[in-house]
Amino acid sequence: MDFFTTGRLLKQVNALLIPKVRTPHSVADFRPISCCNVIYKVISKILVCRIREILDLLISPSQNAFIPGRLISDNVLLAQELFSGYNQCRLPPRCALKVDLRKAYDTVEWDFLFATLRLFGFPAVFIRWIEECITSAHYSVVVNGGVHGFFAGARGLRQGDPMSPELKLFQLSFADDLLLLCKADVRSVSLFRRGLDVFASLSGLHTNPQKSQLIFSKAASGLRDSLLETLGFQEGHLPVRYLGLPLISARLSIADCQPLLQKIDSRIKGWEGVQLSFAGRVQLIKSVLVSLEVYWAMAFILPKGIINEMIKTIAYLLWKGTSSSGYPKVRLRDCSIWTVKENKGAWGWRKMLTLRHTLLSHIQFRVGDGTSFLLWHDPWHPLGPLITRFPRGPQMTNTGPLDKISVVMEDRQWNWPMITDIACLEITYMLPPISEGQDRISWKSNNGSFNTSTAYDLFRPGSQGCLVFTFAWSLQDPKELLYPLACYHGEIVHIG
Predict the structure, then answer these.
(1) Are strands 234-236 and 245-247 parallel, antiparallel or unpaired?
(2) 188 and 286 co-located in one domain
(3) Contact 32, 16 (CB under 8 A)
(4) Rounded to the nearest 10 degrees, how much is the dihedral formed by the CA atoms of 163, 169, 175, 181?
C-alpha cells in the first residue's frame, strides 16, 4: 500500500540475456528478460487487472491477441481468406507488406505511451503509477551467472513484466506480424512508407528491413524492383509465416505442415536430457505438444498424413521415452468395441455399446488378407466374436488373444493350427470364404455403402402399416381426416 500512497518503488531489476539464435554474435542477437522482484510483480499485477477490464472497449477489433473474449485465430482466418486465390491471373497486380518491428518491446518511447494513455482518458494518478513502474527501474545485466553494471533505462517495456503485454497493445498492432495489403503501384507503397516513418518518429518503433517482406501477385519484374527499393524490404513468397501459421493461397498440403512437425521434434529433443517419469511425459504432451496441434487445427483442416505422423511421434515419446532414456517399451492393450464390457467408459460410450448388437445385424465383415481384423475379438465369424463363445480359444489353438486373422491363413487359404479342445472344432466348420484384397467392412445394402435411412429404420421401434392410416391420409378434406383417426384411437364410442 505504500506504493499507492507515495508513488515510490524499488529501482533495481536484473536482466537476463537470452539468445534468440543458435550462435549469437552481437547484443542484438539476445533478448533481455527482466527478473522483477515479488513486490513489483504484485503491484504490476494489480494495475494490469484494472487495465484488462476495459481493453475490449479501447483496442481496435483488428487486434485479437491478449484481449479477453477474443481469439487470435480470428486474425489467421481473416488473413487466410484475403490470400485465398492470391495468385489468380484475372486479378490486378497487388502486394502484401509483412512488417516486422525491430526490438518492438525494447524501443517503445515512454512519452508516446503516456500520451496515448492520456488520450484514452486514464486518470492522472493511474498514469503516474504506471510511469513509476516503467521509468524508475535501473538494470543490472546477468552474464555467465555474474551481475554486471547498474544503469537506468531510457525507453522500452520490460519482457517479463506482467504489465508489458497489455501496455504494448496501446501502441502496437502486432510486434512481429503486422500485415498490410495494397495495390502494387508506387503511389500506394509510398503512402505506406510515409505512414511507417511517421509512426516510427512518434513511437520509436522502426521496421526491420531484414525480416520484413513484400509479397507480390502478378507484378512485373521492373515494378517489383521499384517497390522493393522504395520500402527496402525483402521479397517474400507464399507460404509465409503469420502468427505462427503458414499463409497459403491454395489447400493446405503436407509440405506446408512440415514446420509443425519440426517444432514438435525440436520440443522433444529439448527434453532428451531430462529423465522424465511417465506422468511427466503425459503432462508435457498435454500442455505443449497437443496445444501446438490444436492451434493449427483452429485455422486449418490438417491432412491425414500429418495427423498420423504426430500420433506416431507422440506415441513414441509417451511409451518409449526418448532414444536415450531407456524406458521400457510399454503400450496400452488393444480393445475391440465388439467385446469390451458395457460398464466400461463414460456414459456416452456405455449408451453406444448397448446398440452394438443391433448394429451388428446390418454390418458384414469380409475377410481378405487378414491383417485388419482381430482373430478372437472382431465379429468376422458367423458365430460372432469368438472370444465370447470360446474364452479359452487362444490357449486351445496356440494363438495370441490379440492376433490378427492372418496367423491362421496361408496363401489366401485357411490354415488353423492343431486344435486340442473338441469344443473349438466348431470354429473350423463355419469358416467364411476369403475374398480378394484387404479386409473390409460393408453395410448390408444394395451397394454396400452406409446410408442414414436404413440406419434410422434399424434403431426406430418397428411398426406395421395400418389400413386406417392409409385411408385417412388419402382424404382431401382435413375435416374428414379427424373422424377415422378418432375411431382408431377409441375417442368415439358407438352404441347399438
Answers:
(1) unpaired
(2) no
(3) yes
(4) 170
The DSSP annotation for 453-484 comes to: HHHHHHHSPP----HHHHHHHT-SSHHHHHHH
> Could you tell me which residue, 3 or 250, shows the higher pLDDT?
250
My answer on whether 115 and 206 are in the same domain is yes
Q: Is the dihedral of CA 70, 156, 18, 42 positive or negative?
A: negative
Q: List, for residues 284-299, the tens digit of each pLDDT value.
A: 888 888 899 999 998 8
Cα–Cα separations (whole angstroms), residue 242 to 23, 128, 170, 471: 25, 36, 21, 66
Residue 275: inside a domain, yes or no?
yes
Cell numbers 496361408: residue: 410
Helix H or strand E segment including 409 = strand 409-410
How many domains in the chain?
4
Q: pLDDT tens digits for 311-368?
A: 888 888 887 765 444 444 555 555 667 767 767 666 677 777 777 777 777 788 889 9
Distance between CA 211 and CA 175 in Å, rounded? 12
Pick the closest to residue 295 from 63, 76, 64 (CA basis): 76
Distance CA 187, CA 49 (A): 44
Residue tagged 451388428 (cell numbers): 360
Judgement on whether residues 146 and 271 belong to the same structural domain of the protein? no
Question: In sequence order, which residues have a C-beta less than 8 Å from that of residue 245 and are 6 or more positions away?
Answer: 76, 295, 296, 299, 300
**Residue 496: band (very low, low, confident or very high) from pLDDT cuts 50, 70, 90:** very low
pLDDT for 194 equals 93
396-417 b/e with 16+ CB inside 10 Å = b? bbebeeebbbbbbbeeeeeebe
Q: Are residues 430 and 477 in the same domain?
A: no
Residue range of the domain that includes 308: 255-320
Task: Round the average pLDDT of the chain to a whole number and report it.
Answer: 79
Bigger pLDDT: 479 or 254?
Answer: 254
* Residue 279 and residue 386 in one domain: no
CA dihedral 72, 75, 78, 84 (to 10 degrees): -100
Distance CA(112)–CA(405), nearest Å, equals 74
What is the pTM (predicted TM-score) of this model?
Answer: 0.58
451 and 367 within one domain: yes
Task: Decide if 326 is inside a domain.
Answer: no
Dist CA 431 CA 375 (whole Å): 12
Where does residue 306 rank: exposed (0-12), middle (13-18), buried (19+ CB within 10 A)? buried
